[in-house]
Write a structure and sequence with these properties.
This protein is mainly α. It contains 15 helices and no strands.
Length: 323
């Protein structure tokens, strides 16, 4: 059997179609490869842009955070004349020890009294609030009683009340019970904080298993012994957090002492430095340099406390990761 001209034409047409299809397929694959390469290069460029954006943001944030502290350190080492005539971001002659001597001897060393007052108010207030918050949060988390939901509603609702609105009622109350212009006006109100109670409750629910309480009761332990011997040990991280947050808050407090304290010998360090800043200059000494040096000294206790309590947070984070 021989092929006719029509059959040959049909075969040639079929081969041509196949060649055309293969060519189109190869071209499509080349376009796809070029597209993939373009996508990868665009993704890499996008990732590189995001990396630079994050890096620049971190650098700006670091400058914003460290810049004021650097200026404070540099300014505390300068004399009164150098404070106004030299570059504020770099050192001149080192006069830190002279400034410290003036700081602790001016007005018969009242800065040391202010520093002691701040330490007393912050330590006593933060320790009291930590114990009260842990006890209240432990009770709300581990026990069932009538009015528990209502109590939590009042605690959470109290977050919405600005502290400034309580200033006048607190002032009237302190005058009536006789603790106005005393150290108790600073210490007693610091024992109570709704946010600390809420924080302690939430942490207790995750850290204190009810089975542990049942086992302790079976062994004959009372409720107080369970709390002090077992509960407080498991709530160390929450207690450290509450203590540090309120120590810093009390140490930096200004409006409360301004309203509730009149005698300068009972002022905390922040209010005392503000009084010097308002006076500006004295006949013998420039109070601005004393305020700067005093501000540097006043930050040291908070830095030391932060460094000392890091291990409690590290232990809490490690325990949370193991869970």
């Amino acid at each position: 059997m021989t092929l006719t001209d029509v059959d040959r034409a049909a075969l040639e047409t079929t081969d041509e179609v196949k060649r055309t299809e293969r060519g189109a397929l190869r071209a499509s694959r080349r376009r796809q490869r070029r597209g993939d390469a373009g996508d990868h290069s665009g993704l890499a460029a996008s990732r590189g842009g995001s990396k630079w954006f994050v890096l620049i943001g971190l650098i700006l944030f670091t400058i914003y955070s460290v810049g004021p502290a650097w200026w404070l350190i540099v300014s505390a080492t300068k004399s009164k004349e150098q404070l106004y005539t030299t570059n504020g971001l770099w050192f001149a002659d080192f006069n830190l020890f002279e400034n410290l001597s003036s700081l602790f001897t001016y007005q018969d060393g009242i800065f040391g009294v202010w520093l002691g007052n701040s330490t007393l108010y912050a330590l006593a207030g933060a320790a009291g609030q930590t114990l009260v918050a842990l006890a209240a949060g432990y009770g709300l988390a581990m026990y069932q009683f009538r009015g528990k939901g209502t109590s939590m509603a009042f605690i959470i609702g109290s977050f919405l009340i600005p502290g400034a609105l309580l200033t006048i009622p607190s002032y009237l109350l302190f005058v009536q019970i006789g603790i106005y212009d005393t150290v108790w006006a600073m210490i007693l109100p610091a024992f109570f904080g709704p946010f600390s109670v809420y924080l302690a409750k939430v942490y207790t629910e995750g850290a204190m298993p009810p089975e542990l309480m049942e086992a302790a009761r079976i062994d004959g332990a009372g409720e107080y012994r369970i709390f002090f011997s077992i509960g407080l040990r498991l709530l160390t991280t929450a207690g450290a957090t509450v203590f540090l947050l309120h120590f810093v808050a009390i140490w930096n407090a200004f409006f409360g002492p301004l309203v509730f304290l009149r005698a300068a010998e009972r002022w905390p360090v922040m209010l005392g430095l503000y009084s010097w800043l308002q006076r500006g200059t004295d006949s013998t000494v420039d109070l601005t340099s004393l305020v700067i040096t005093g501000s540097l000294v006043a930050t040291i206790p908070m830095v030391l406390l932060m460094v000392a309590m890091q291990r409690y947070w590290r232990a809490g984070v490690t325990m949370g990761s193991l869970k």
